[in-house]
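The authors assume throughout that readers already know how a fold can be written as discrete tokens. For illustration, here is how one protein appears when written out as sequence plus structure tokens:
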Amino acid sequence: MADQVETLLAEAARLPYGEARTVLAERALREAEVLREPEPAIAARLALTQAYQYGGEPAKSFATFSRTVAAYDAEPGRFTEWQARRVLWQFKWIMSDMRRFPEIPLRRALDALDDMERRYREAGAPQAVYAQRCRVALHLGDEPGTEEWLHRWETAPRDDLSDCRACDLGGRAYVLASLGRYEEAVAVGGPVVAGEFSCGVQPQSILCTLLTPYLKTGHLDEAAEAHRRAYRIVQGQIGYLDDIGDHLEFCALTGNETRGLEILERELPLLERPPSPAQARSFMAGAALVLRRLMETGHDGLTVRRAGRDVPVPELHAELAAGAREIAARFDARNGDDVHTRRVAATLAAEPLVAHLPLFSPALLSPARRGEPDGRIDPADTDRRMAVRALFELGEHEAGQAALREAGDPAAAMEAAKELTDLDLDVEAAQAYAVAADLYRNAGELLAAGCAMRLRAKCVYFASDDIAEIGEAYAQARAALTAASEAGEPGTGQPDTGQRREAAWELAGLGYDEAVALRWAGCYKAAAERCQEALDAYLALDDQIGAVPVRELLEGLREETEQEG
């Protein structure tokens, strides 16, 4: 039974955060509790707390975390060193959550912070406590206290319980922005924006934090790019509901009310099950501001689709504004002040900082999309790449693909796909490679089409957790390369030996790539078979250099296959 718990947790860990992963972790905990053995339950509770946190259900993590702490205090020897450290790490999540739920008494939250500080000091790791105290002071509107704790946070040495560098800088940038120290916020966030540091929640969170600082300091191009990059990552994800609210506010502050309305309609269903009241408040305030600006600019006759009916903009504005104020009042009742009511009022009454900030160059949009009657815009290559990239970053995938197809240049599509890959926009890169493959195929360049499909398959692998989807992408790439290898020379009907050899190399590389993907999915036997095919292909080509990594992978797969058997 303990093995079954371990198997369930391993299976859950391979899934993206969300309902499916959480259900498996919950099942693992139920089975662990039946065992009446502490160790499996410890592992399951730690995993379930994490699943709740990142799966959009932080309220449920209070119970699992409390039981974990109680178990640790009762029998610390039952915890491995890693698990004991993990308990301390999860304390940070719980403290953040306590600020997001007005139902939790302030005294209880402060007592929990004191308990966290005691444990962290015993572990010789106080820096993260200073960060938490800084955030609590900010939450309470205590500006002198915020400044003091920020100074301690910035000057304390980092330790093994500090947030990762990306999140640490992101947290400090958020505090600086909240204090109106915009230039400093931009400077602190610079290394994360530049890609020097990153993690699972960065750079999207810090880009959201810097939206207003960029506007306030005149970095308008950076502000537009931050919106494009960050919203593409967070769209549709309930755990980022508050960040989405900030993107809505950004649209209202930059004369992009139409874009804001588009985001609102897309994301409004998330508000039916918000992770926390604080996140709901942020979303509602940002949405209400967009709706107010639409009303002020003569669009009060528009409607928004919600729960099966078309809601007039004024009606939805009133509802969301009232909802944001009500949640703010609940926080103020808990804290004994009016800090949150004043903050929400400021958001709802905010005026644009820029009359209109273009979010991307319109150069590549088709005449129909631009409202022009005939002809086709033919921008410079640089403008074309920038426009396509912007469309994809804005989440306008169909428009991005249409723009690439309209340009009719497969090389440009390949270049756009490469740029998207470099930005870790793997879903979008896969779509661009698919367009390039179609254009090459239409031009009769089958080998180039096959190469594009191979690159597409790799992007699908990086972007997807669905092994069936990944397998289909590799199958399509294999079919395209096989077609290229079997094609004859134009006008002769004879085999094209040069193209056949090039296709063979690409197929060998594809086999190795697919073996890596199958290994990641735990399909060791299938991965070994595909790897052996790749090795045979490289040897047939007398490519000893290409065969080296394939041999190494195959040896590891054989060991794993034996263990699996």
